[in-house]
Write a structure and sequence with these properties.
Elements (H helix, E strand, L loop, with lengths): L26 E2 L2 E2 L3 H18 L1 H29 L8 E2 L2 E2 L24 E2 L22 E6 L3 H9 L7 H6 L6 H8 L3 E4 L17 E7 L7 E6 L5 E15 L3 H16 L9 E4 L11 E3 L5 E2 L2 E2 L7 H17 L24 H4 L2 H9 L1 H14 L2 H7 L4 H29 L3 H4 L3 H22 L6 H28 L5 H7 L3 H22 L16 H24 L5 H13 L1 H4 L3 H10 L1 H16 L5 E11 L8 E12 L3 E5 L6 H8 L7 E6 L2 E2 L4 H5 L2 E4 L11 H11 L4 H14 L17 H13 L5 E5 L7 H14 L4 E6 L2 H7 L2 E6 L2 E6 L1 H8 L2 E8 L4 H11 L4 E6 L2 E7 L5 H14 L2 E8 L2 H18 L1
Parallel strand pairs: 5-7, 6-10, 6-11, 8-10, 17-22, 17-23, 20-21, 21-22
Antiparallel strand pairs: 1-2, 3-4, 7-8, 9-10, 11-12, 13-14, 15-16, 15-18, 18-19, 23-24, 25-27, 25-28, 26-27
Helix pairs in contact: 1-12, 1-25, 2-12, 3-7, 9-15, 9-17, 10-14, 10-15, 12-14, 14-17, 14-18, 15-17, 17-18, 21-22, 25-26, 30-33, 31-32
């Protein structure tokens, strides 16, 4: 097994700086800490290696818009292929194609150079209103009249006009309705009466759904004279007609006022929407101040005709006949029954053939683009929280990394990733024909998205300190992304389109980054839609001055937010104690302190005086602080940590007034059972948690105030390995070596010596990713990281956990060499490790030291027994036991088998010469095959002290 010289012997190049060490500039063992540019370079190289190993993840994130665009193209191709099939393509029959062979759906794709003329129909309610006291002259008992609501200031005239809304059909008209229909006859006859249909109208009147074959045409009469019949013929466009013609009675109902009409129409709307039997009326007429010299009428109708709970908004096609009915009734009142005002037909404008296809621009609104852009926010937040959750950033801080380089490199990475993401989205969106990218000015788009992705990155840095769990951060981030988008679509969009909404309030709402993104994309989409419809470009620079256009406000607002939030986020990240969560934590800790402070101080002094070595350590610490002699020393003064209880549990005093003074070149070992408070002490010393009371001085730097400077002078081997799984061991050491100002050949030599010293150099282990390391290999790498760069203080939390005997001995040799130039504090459960490495040992139980001293001193002071081992024939065991009992009545037999026995002898009762005499006496009586006597081990001392301490705390 290769055994290398000390790590530090390879790093002893002196610093070229002659500036004295002190608080002005941190130094590490004679080597100045890397400055900003070198830290920046070290972090950049580490991140490049890390991102190179994660290239699949980065590529997937950046290419997500490309995949999204490809999915949209695939969906469009599939839908377009379906729309090109007969159910949607212009109908054909007998080799001829045209609108006369089409359904209402197919008619949208047909070429119509001469649109057909259709009679104007009224929309009949599917379930007419039930009117008490009225009956219709129908043979079918379920038939009810179609009601019209009337009101007006002149009741007599208004009721006369109401009766004239439904002109009677003459005998000749009834006869004509029995003959085959053609274009001219049908339009002529239907213009004299009030025809209607229960079929919903189409969006365009190239085909009238109420007159397609196998539909029912209703003629509304004040008194039905037309019996039900079936007629056939052809329409003006050549479409065959096969209709059932029925008569339905029109019944005018007088209402006291227009509000009554509105209420009844609204009840019909409400009933249709609640799946109840709808109370529908044909229309409502308010003739207002109509007189013989003035015609003034308001026509009300229900625009929510229901079919399977769906609503149709194109009811304006059914309004023309309602107006004509009122006009004809007014002329008949003035000029007699022969006066008439005919509404012959309705028709559309000519149109060319249109191939039906999916329009992505119409389908994808601002909500889709808002969600797509904001999906980067959870990625950035989870990345930042992951480094905090795994304490990776804290590990880098402990090796001197400043906040400036970390921010600059992280910000650059996120900006590059976001820039690639948006660029791919815009380029491929333009490629597949998304008008929002294709028509609007690319310069405006670049400025808008550049400002927003910067604001999004700053927002992520601002949000990250609020979370300590990646899962929580991810869930909350996605809730924000989808929630802000939905609120923008449901709420902000209404306010944008409402020109009466106060503009200042709109600007205040856009202070939320998600809302400002939605507003900007909404404006781009609106200009793109207008440009596509008008055949013009979308948003240009001159359009920013349009008062209706909100893009200028968005650009200004997001720019100001970016500039203002950037230093705020940096300040909170640099000074986490000012963050609201940290403030609440400090306040909660102070609330928990009175219960501890209320304990009598005299009791603690009495306890410490009972432990002479601990009491003397307190006095030494006070003397050193009084003399201000803190150079080249670690001094802990009355250090306490209290964890506030929750759910009714009492406060937990993890560390109780610890005082300790250590010199350079010492290795101090903390021994203690699980839960004694060792990790809490180490966590306070390395800045993971803040002390509740007291402080510590590391070579003159205060733990409470100078933690950033302390980080530059310490090395840490944590209890749990803080490593990047995708980086190799060599890359870890290269990064931390550069952080300690190693460059060039010195850096390579230091890294190789470090790998050799912890047995990671051979077999190429140093060049394998950490994810392939065993637990022991990770521990060895953590020790190498802690020792690289000659730190002044090294904290090791159980450094040899998981190592085999050979590797553990090699690691101990490394630590022995390292402690010559620094101070080492380690915690361990191995008594052998403590005896091998530690110059001083402290047994830590229930939050405080129970004893302090060298291993030899503790064994002498607290090891009050000796162990005698003697081997004889089995038949002589009782004789040996009687002999030992005579030597010491308090002796205890702790082992016995096949003639070999072990006895515990109190030192206060038995001296060594007495033991020798007893052995010689035994030899005179029977053969003694072997014997030995030994003092108590450190493990025996530890067990004894721990038991006594626990018993004392239970009693107190």
């Amino acid at each position: 097994m290769y055994r290398c010289p000390a790590l530090l012997s390879s790093y002893s190049a002196p610093s070229t700086s002659t500036r004295p060490s002190g608080m002005g500039r941190a130094r590490t063992g004679g080597r100045a800490v890397a400055r900003f540019c070198r830290q920046l370079h070290a972090l950049l190289l580490k991140n490049l290696a890390f991102q190179r190993r994660n290239w699949k993840t980065n590529a997937a994130i950046a290419a997500f818009p490309v995949l999204l665009c490809a999915l949209l193209v695939a969906i469009q191709a599939m839908v377009d292929r379906e729309l090109d099939r007969p159910p949607f393509r212009c109908g054909c029959e007998g080799g001829q194609c045209g609108i006369q062979h089409s359904t209402p759906v197919q008619a949208m794709s047909c070429e119509v150079p001469a649109p057909p003329r259709w009679p104007a129909l009224v929309q009949l309610p599917v379930v007419p209103a039930f009117v008490h006291g009225q009956s219709a002259p129908c043979s079918n008992t379920s038939c009810r009249p179609v009601s019209v609501l009337l009101t007006g200031r002149n009741p007599g005239l208004s009721q006369s006009l109401g009766r004239g809304l439904f002109p009677a059909m003459s005998a000749s008209d009834t006869l004509l309705m029995s003959e085959p229909m053609n274009s001219s006859s049908s339009l002529h006859q239907l213009s004299k009466v009030a025809p209607g249909s229960k079929t919903l109208p189409a969006h365009e009147l190239f085909v009238e759904p109420g007159l397609v074959p196998n539909q029912t045409l209703y003629v509304i009469q004040s008194k039905c004279l037309l019996p039900p019949r079936n007629v056939s013929g052809t329409s003006d466009g050549g479409m065959p007609l096969q209709l059932d013609v029925e008569c339905v009675q029109g019944l005018p109902l007088w209402c006291a006022s227009s509000s009554v009409i509105n209420r009844r129409l609204y009840n019909g709307y409400k009933g249709a929407n609640k799946r109840r039997r709808p109370n529908e009326f044909l229309a409502g007429y308010d003739f207002l101040d109509t007189s013989t010299g003035r015609f003034h009428v308001y026509v009300s109708y229900n625009s929510t005709f229901s079919r399977d709970n769906g609503h149709h908004s194109m009811t304006v096609l059914r309004v023309a006949r309602l107006v004509n009915m009122a006009s004809t009734a007014y002329l008949k009142v003035l000029r007699g029954v022969n006066a008439e005002m005919r509404l012959e037909f309705l028709k559309e404008m000519p149109k060319a053939a249109i191939k039906m296809k999916l329009d992505l621009t119409t389908l994808l609104d601002a909500l889709f683009f808002t969600w797509t852009v904001q999906l980067l926010l959870p990625v950035i937040v989870t990345y930042l929280v992951y480094e905090k959750q795994q304490n990776l950033r804290l590990m880098m801080r402990m090796h001197g990394l400043k906040d400036g380089p970390y921010w600059l490199i992280s910000y650059s990475y996120f900006l590059s990733l976001s820039g690639a993401y948006i660029t791919f989205f815009a380029v491929f969106g333009s490629f597949i024909g998304l008008d929002i990218f294709r028509l609007n000015s690319y310069a405006i788009q670049f400025l808008f998205f550049f400002i927003y992705i910067n604001l999004q990155i700053v927002s992520a840095f601002l949000l990250a300190p609020f979370f300590s769990s990646v899962k929580t951060a991810s869930v909350v981030s996605y809730i924000y992304v989808f929630g802000s988008g939905l609120l923008g679509e449901a709420l902000l969009k209404l306010f944008i389109e409402d020109t009466t909404f106060p503009r200042p309030w709109l600007v205040i709402m856009e202070l939320v980054p998600g809302f400002s993104l939605y507003r900007g994309i909404y404006e781009l989409a609106e200009y793109a839609a207008t440009g596509s419809y008008m055949g013009k470009p979308g948003m240009q620079w001159e359009d920013l001055n349009d008062p209706i256009n909100g893009m200028k406000d968005v650009l200004i607002l997001t720019s100001i937010e970016w500039v203002l939030l950037l230093p705020v986020a940096f300040f909170l990240d640099h000074r986490p104690e000012w963050h609201p969560i940290f403030l609440s934590g400090i306040l909660s800790t102070k609330h928990s302190s009175p219960s501890y402070k209320a304990n009598p101080r005299s009791k603690r002094v009495f306890d410490d005086m009972a432990k002479t070595d601990v009491f003397l350590e307190h006095k030494v610490v006070k003397r050193l602080l009084k003399e201000m002699d803190t150079r080249n020393m670690i001094i802990c003064h009355n250090l306490k940590k209290v964890y506030r209880g929750s759910n009714g549990n009492p406060d937990k005093l993890a560390v109780r007034g610890l005082s300790l003074a250590l010199h350079k070149g010492q290795c101090f070992g903390m021994l203690g059972p699980n839960g004694a408070g060792k990790s809490s002490f180490i966590n306070m010393m390395i800045g993971l948690v803040a002390p509740t009371y007291g402080t510590a001085y590391i070579h003159g730097m205060d733990l409470r105030k100078d933690m950033n400077e302390i980080y530059e002078n310490i090395g840490v081997c944590p209890q749990h390995d803080l490593l990047w799984e995708t980086l190799t061991g060599r890359e870890h050491l290269l990064f931390y070596g550069r952080m300690k100002n190693f460059t060039g050949a010195a850096l390579m030599k230091a890294v190789e010596e470090s790998l050799k010293s912890v047995n990671l150099f051979h077999c190429g282990f140093g060049d394998k990713s950490v994810s392939k390391y065993s637990g022991g290999m990770k521990r060895r790498l953590s020790v190498a990281i802690a020792l690289i760069g000659n730190p002044k203080v090294v904290y090791m939390d159980e450094p040899s956990t998981g190592l085999d005997t050979i590797c553990r001995n090699d690691l101990w040799n490394v630590i022995k060499q390292a402690k010559k130039e620094c101070t080492i504090i380690l915690t361990t459960h191995s008594m052998e490790e403590a005896e091998e490495l530690c110059d001083r040992v402290g047994i830590f139980v229930s939050g405080n030291f129970q004893c302090l001293g060298t291993p030899k001193e503790l064994k002498t002071r607290y090891g009050d027994t000796r162990v005698l081992t003697i081997t004889t024939a089995a038949e002589h065991e009782e004789a040996v036991a009687r002999l030992i009992a005579g030597l010491s009545p308090s002796a205890v037999k702790i082992y016995g088998m096949s003639g070999t026995q072990k006895f515990e002898l109190p030192k206060r009762e038995v001296r060594l010469d007495g033991v020798f005499g007893a052995v010689e006496a035994a030899r005179g009586m029977f053969p003694v095959h072997g014997w030995g006597v030994a003092d108590a081990t450190l493990e025996d001392v530890f067990i004894s002290v721990a038991k006594d301490a626990r018993a004392f705390h239970v009693l107190s």
